[in-house]
Amino acid sequence: MIKLIQNEWIKIIKRPGTIVMFALVILLVGATGTFVKYNQDKKDARVDQNWKQTIQAQTEGYKSDLKKMGDKNISRPFLERTVAINEYRLKHDISPYEKTSVWTFLDVSSSSIVLVGLFTIIIAANIVASEFNWGTIKLLLIRPFSRRKIILSKYITSVLFGFVLLFTLFIVSTVLGLILFSTGDGNTSYLAYVDGKVVEQSRLIYSAKFYLMSFIETFMLATMAFMISTVFRNNTIAIGLSILLLTLGSMITNIVASYFDWAKYILFANTDLMQYINGTPLVKGMTMTFSVVMLLVYFVIFIGLALGVFSKRDVTA
């Protein structure tokens, strides 16, 4: 299995597109850092010195909205979280306006996770379909490895590629953030909303969790793209459908969840595990355990279909 994975990695690395993917991620982080650095003084100068009065007025407005809002309103958990955090800031004199630092830059550069997701989906959709397109699938199958090991090695490689790309994004963002903005000063803890209470957490740990958990949606979509390309031998369908769901899946799920509780069984209702870190589950009653179980169910279905079809289908390429 290890030799198969090594072989797949060599194939990916030798493709010119792979270097371009890593270069684009690094260049995007550099461009983001340049833009943030250029606007740093303007941003820091706009800090509201009367933030307590602003936060107090905002909190009172949100409390009024909560009284008029139904329990199933999709905005309710977010407003409850905002009110709790605002009150904590007022009580402990923690301003919501942070000076630009490596931590704020990590938050900004996290928008590039979408690009990581796109590239991972492309690799996952191509890694099997390309063997059929190039006519090399028979050469692969005559090797002394079972079909199951071959397909699993391709899947593991595509997922590892995504993690390596995500790790590259996080490390480059951290190093560039430290060079350009340092670690900041004052209270730099992240205010998390857990079980109805506000707690202070390490920004480094929070950022690491955010990057990893943000990758879960990409991981599941890459698994789906891998399954589709394996079943239909068509990378275009796999890439197109996966990118469409990456773009619109969460938005459509949020709309459905505002009307129906069964929305919690949809894949995209469970991919954002940060909703539990932030205390804002999409549907009331959802838990971290429930979402993990649902993700495992979808994962088993996707991988089961890919393994089943690839193991039994005749290869005529």
What does this structure look like?
The chain is mainly α. It has one domain. 72% of the residues lie in helices and 3% in strands. It has 13 helices and 2 strands. The chain has helices at residues 2-14, 16-38, 40-45, 51-68, 76-92, 102-109, 113-134, 137-141, 147-181, 203-232, 235-257, 274-277, 288-312, and strands at 190-194, 197-201. Strands 1-2 form a two-stranded antiparallel sheet. Strand 1 and strand 2 form a beta hairpin. Helix 4 runs antiparallel to helix 5 and helix 10 (203-232) packs parallel to helix 13. The chain is globular and about 70 Å long. The model has no long low-confidence stretch (mean pLDDT 83).
State the domain count.
1
Strand content: under 5%
Distance between the termini: 24 Å
Radius of gyration (CA) equals 23 Å
The string of secondary-structure elements, in order, is: HHHHHHHHHEEHHHH
Largest sheet: 2 strands, antiparallel
User: How many extended strands?
Assistant: 2
Unreliable residue stretches: none
Strand order of the largest sheet: 1-2
Proportion of residues in helical segments:
over 70%
